[in-house]
From TrEMBL, chain A:
NCBIfam families xrefs: ntrCD
Signal peptide: none
Gene Ontology MF term list: ATP binding; ATP hydrolysis activity; nitrate transmembrane transporter activity
Family statement: Belongs to the ABC transporter superfamily. Nitrate/nitrite/cyanate uptake transporter (NitT) (TC 3.A.1.16) family.
Membrane-topology descriptor: Peripheral membrane protein
Domain ABC transporter: 40-273
Protein name per Swiss-Prot or TrEMBL: ABC-type nitrate/nitrite uptake system ATPase component NrtD
Keyword hit for Cell cycle: no
Entry's localization field: Cell inner membrane
Keyword Iron in record: no
Species of provenance: Phormidesmis priestleyi Ana
GO CC terms of this entry: plasma membrane
Key words of the record: ATP-binding, Cell membrane, Membrane, Nucleotide-binding, Translocase, Transport
UniProtKB/TrEMBL annotation, chain B:
Alphabetical list of PROSITE patterns matching this protein: ABC_TM1 (PS50928)
GO biological process, one term: alkanesulfonate transmembrane transport
A GO cellular component entry from the record: plasma membrane
Family (UniProt): Belongs to the binding-protein-dependent transport system permease family.
MF GO annotations: nitrate transmembrane transporter activity
The name this protein goes by in its record: ABC-type nitrate/nitrite uptake system permease component NrtB
Keywords: Cell inner membrane, Cell membrane, Ion transport, Membrane, Transmembrane, Transmembrane helix, Transport
Segments passing through the bilayer: 128-146, 184-205, 226-245, 251-271, 283-308
CDD domains registered for this protein in UniProt: TM_PBP2
Domain ABC transmembrane type-1: 120-300
Record organism: Phormidesmis priestleyi Ana
Topology with respect to the bilayer: Multi-pass membrane protein
Taxonomic placement: Bacteria, Bacillati, Cyanobacteriota, Cyanophyceae, Leptolyngbyales
Annotated localization: Cell inner membrane; Cell membrane
Top-rank lineage group of the source organism: Bacteria
């Protein structure tokens, strides 16, 4: 497991803040329960973009705590700041107010402990599947031998079922295979948090279901904390432990969090047929289309 | 019994250097004897002739049309310039006048009286030096400007002005600065070729997709590693566009520069021929200049095809 390396926070009080006593962070009017230490804490996050017509608030005072090993799905209409929120967890974007703590350390920059899987795969087109994964392995396991790095790379390509295609370039791979490479690349670094921004959005429905099952299988054998944006309610209900539903922007926030209690390993047919599934689905639909309806239809 | 069905694999040349395999199902109804004879040596006779036939069929057509066009132009030229009082030589006269130069390109009588091979070589050497310098400096500056918004905003307007200055306009200032002909000619090549290289490299670096930058950020690729793994491969198609424009401009500029600075070189050879009224020699030199320019362009294109990743951006 690679060490968490977001230690260069400017404010020393936030590096290892005591969890048993109340903190005195100046940016935070209210602090989360000081009694418990959460794995990932999104703490009073606001994101305001300055524009020509004045400031535009994308997110306002978002709070969410996530335990280690949880599978969280985020759903919401486009423009609600889901991606902005996850980019801030990834460190690609900085919050205007508030902070995000991973194991009590403030996230200040991107790092391989929070790997991101993008909707458009983000594979480097001039590298083969193997080289794409190896680049990540090389960056994270800097002190391992070449053979070990090679083994780790091959192991993860095998995990996603790509042993045959390791020497192919992304342009020679189908969408599903590309996303498998991206997943292998992300998992190979053993991230603490796996961030996925609509990972299966560009796939056809059949491949999408296959990839969901594979993802769950891999996640169950290689546990990590997952944050995933989706537009697909069924996908969220099949995958997630909790479903975070966002209100509409501007000044979006978390509207409601649904606990999804289906036992694991989940069987898609059983899940779909259970009355609880229909109840949760109707509840979420009600939230998205009635209470927080949007001009744009849900994809 | 369907033994008289044969799968025949054909190697069909596609674009570039790739070969595609086309499978054709042939249903052959023929006498048993012939059938047996065919199946005995099926693969070689059908595969090879087809490959050869298709190979022979395409290039001749591609050669045929330009040849006709060339013949037409030569005929027109002959008709227009065939009369004795014509101010320009006809193609036949050009060939007669210059056959010595054509068949003996390697003579060296000292001074500037050298065969066309040496003349062109001298020009190519100047281009090689000036262009190489332009490539190194241009790519370096392009990367610097492309990856730094401040530098881009500071220098881009300046470059946009300087790049429109015609190559020969730089020559007097170069002669004044270097006090010597040869470095001045090389400087003209350098300053001509560098702008497209800088500008294309800058664009290449600026257009690196945010996705790749995000990957680099998440993996903490920095410094030289970022350059090697992300920036250079992403920008290299643009860099080669600049290099290819640059080599063309260099060759355009060298002829003009050499006309003014003198010495051995194809440019001065043309000027010298004009001064001694050897119009046929000028025409021959122009043809050589055109052919060499084409070869230079294709050479850079060929290097690009080796270096540039074949896959387009996803």
């Amino acid at each position: 497991m690679n060490a968490l390396s977001t230690t260069d926070s400017s404010s020393p009080s936030e590096i290892s803040r005591p969890t048993s006593s109340p903190t005195s962070s100046p940016t935070l009017p209210q602090t989360p329960s000081p009694m418990t230490s959460h794995f990932l804490e999104i703490d009073g996050i606001s994101k305001i973009y300055p524009t020509a017509k004045g400031s535009y608030t994308v997110l306002e005072d978002v709070n969410l705590t996530i335990d280690e090993g949880e599978f969280i799905c985020l759903i919401g209409h486009s423009g609600c700041g889901k991606s902005t929120l996850l980019n801030m967890v990834a460190g690609l974007n900085k919050p205007t107010e508030g902070q995000i703590l991973l194991k009590n350390q403030r996230i200040t920059e991107p790092g391989p402990d929070r790997m991101v899987i993008f909707q458009n795969y983000s594979l480097l087109p001039w590298k083969t599947a193997y080289e794409n994964v190896y680049l990540a392995v090389e960056q994270v396991y800097k002190h391992r031998s070449a053979q070990e790095k090679k083994d780790i790379t091959l192991e993860h390509l095998e995990l996603v079922g790509l042993t045959e295609a390791i020497n192919k370039k992304p342009s020679q791979l189908s969408g599903g295979m590309k996303q498998r490479v991206a997943i292998a690349r992300a998992l190979a670094t053993r991230p603490e948090v796996l961030i996925m921004d609509e990972p299966f959005g560009a796939l056809d429905p059949i491949t999408r279901e296959e990839m969901q099952e594979e993802l769950v299988n891999i996640w169950e054998t290689h546990p990590s904390t997952v944050l995933m944006i989706t537009h697909d309610l069924d996908e969220a209900l099949f995958l997630a432990d909790r479903l975070v539903m966002m209100t509409n922007g501007p000044s979006a926030n978390i509207g409601e969090i649904l606990e999804i209690p289906f036992p694991r390993p989940r069987n898609r047919a059983q899940v779909v047929e259970s009355p609880k599934y229909r109840e949760l689905r109707n509840h979420a639909l009600d939230f998205l289309f009635r209470r927080f309806a949007h001009d744009d239809a849900l994809e | 019994m369907r033994e008289n069905r044969y799968f025949v694999c054909l190697l069909v040349p596609k674009q570039g250097f790739e070969f595609g395999i086309a499978e054709i199902l042939l249903e052959i109804e023929c006498p048993i004897t012939l059938q047996r004879a065919m199946s005995a040596n099926l693969t070689p006779p059908i595969t090879k002739p087809n490959f050869l036939v298709s190979w022979l069929k395409n290039p001749p057509q591609k050669l045929f049309r330009p040849l006709i066009a060339l013949l037409f132009i030569l005929t027109l030229w002959q008709v227009l310039c065939g009369s004795p009082e014509s101010s320009l030589p006809s193609p036949i006269k050009t060939f007669q006048d210059t056959s010595d130069l054509i068949f003996n390109p390697f003579f060296d009588n000292g001074g500037t009286d050298k065969g066309l091979f040496w003349q062109i070589l001298a020009s190519l050497q100047r281009v090689a030096v000036g262009y190489t310098l332009a490539a190194i400096v241009g790519i370096g500056l392009g990367i610097l400007i492309g990856s730094n918004a401040f530098m881009f905003e500071a220098l881009d307007p300046l470059f946009q002005i300087l790049r429109t200055v015609p190559p020969l306009a730089w020559l007097p200032i170069a002669l004044a600065g270097f006090q010597e002909a040869n470095p001045s000619a090389i400087f003209v090549i350098f300053i001509t070729a560098i702008w497209p290289i800088i500008i294309n490299t800058t664009v290449g670096v600026q257009q690196i997709p945010q996705d790749y930058k995000n990957v680099a950020k998440v993996l903490r690729l920095k410094g030289f590693k970022y350059f090697r793994e992300i920036m250079f491969p992403a920008a290299v198609p643009y860099i080669f566009t600049g290099l290819r424009i640059g080599i063309g401009l260099s060759w355009l500029a060298i002829v003009a520069a050499e006309m003014l600075v003198g010495g051995v070189g194809i440019g001065f050879f043309i000027w010298d021929s004009y001064n001694s009224s050897q119009l046929s020699e000028i025409i021959l030199a122009l043809i050589y200049v055109g052919v060499v320019g084409l070869i230079l362009d294709r050479l850079v294109g060929w290097v690009a095809s080796l270096v540039v990743p074949s896959e387009p951006q996803v």
